[in-house]
Amino acid sequence: MDRLAQAGPAPIAGSAAPGDRLPELRADSPLADYILYAYLSNPGLQAAFHRWTAALDRVPQARALPDPQLSYSVFVRREQVNPTRQEFVLSQTFPWFGKRGLAARAASEAANAERQRFEAARLALRDEVQAAWHECRYLGRAIEVVEGNVQLLRRLEAALRTRFAAGLAPHGDLIKLQVELDELEDRLRSLQDLRAPLAARLDAALNRKGPGPFPEAAETPGEPIAATAEQLLAMLRESSPELKALDAEIAKEQASVERAKKDFYPDVMLGLDYMDMADPGMRDPAAAMITLSLPIWRGKYAAGVREARSMHLAALA
Which of 6, 90, 107, 286 is the most exposed place for a label (fewest CB within 10 A)? Predict the structure, then answer.
């Protein structure tokens, strides 16, 4: 099951990928087929996947330069001193050093957080399908065992009734066996009543529109966990997607703090100005330009830094 996540997000996209088909589920299908079916059909998991891919696409947007600007002017009235017919100005803004890198780092950490949330949703869905599948199989096996015991007691009850009629068995033994048979039949009916809700739980985890085949009865022996509580906690800290998502959120907010501090520095705009002169005897002038933004509203930038720091503290908390 985990190979789907290790291979990348494409197999989880479900019907969005042309080659992906839902596996046909039968009563004897292995657990892996049920989990794959859930991966490809669960809308919640697909929503988490698309949030991850959307966050990935924000990284190149954050790293990119602002769009260049092209300005064109035509002089409807020309003066003798400056007989300019038209003017072209091409400019490009360059944010202060480090702004784009920090914005891209924050976007990358946000994408990593979305990936970990997707992994958490995938693991939660796998656990739900796995639990429902095992319970269905266990219930089927329990029903088989109780049905066998009921048939056995019915045969014993018939034999004991014959012996009682012949005076070879006391009436108390027959009554005791009949009471035990009634209790076992009640137990069988109770187990059979559990099939519908368990099947509905499995169908809900699979996002299956109608009732499907009930997993066949089988013994489901447990696997012992050879680890102490301390080792399990250490594994949790290292592998929990929820904790990794929080770590990524912390890193994103830290990058946002550093990015907010850069707002105190000016952005630079470089440009080229070209004038087309009406007098053919005059050379067309061209000029190189440099423009600096003036970050004079210090209170606004200080508030942005405080906001970023508060978000960082919230992530840490």
Answer: 6
User: For residues 249 and 117, is the Cβ–Cβ distance under 8 A?
Assistant: no
* CA distance linking residue 257 with residue 266, whole number of Å: 17
Using CB atoms within 10 Å of the CB of residue 110, give its burial: 0 to 12 exposed, 13 to 18 middle, 19+ buried: buried
Q: Which fold has domain 26-221+245-316?
A: Outer membrane efflux proteins (OEP) (1.20.1600)
Question: What does the block give as tokens for 191?
Answer: 């187990």
* Predicted model pTM: 0.78
Decide: helix, strand or coil at residue 267.
coil
102 pLDDT band (50/70/90 cuts)? very high
Q: Which of 116, 114, 115, 109 is nearest to 312 (CA)?
A: 109
Closest CA to 73 of 91, 88, 92, 53: 88
Handedness of CA 143, 146, 149, 154 (dihedral sign): negative
Q: Are strands 84-94 and 268-277 parallel, antiparallel or unpaired?
A: antiparallel
Beta strand pairing call for 268-277 and 69-74: unpaired
> What is the distance between the alpha carbons of residues 251 and 261, in angstroms, rounded to a whole number?
16
C-alpha 71/C-alpha 92 separation (Å) is: 12
Q: State how far the alpha carbon of 85 is from the alpha carbons of 67, 78, 134, 253, in Å.
A: 27, 7, 82, 52
pLDDT of residue 6: 39
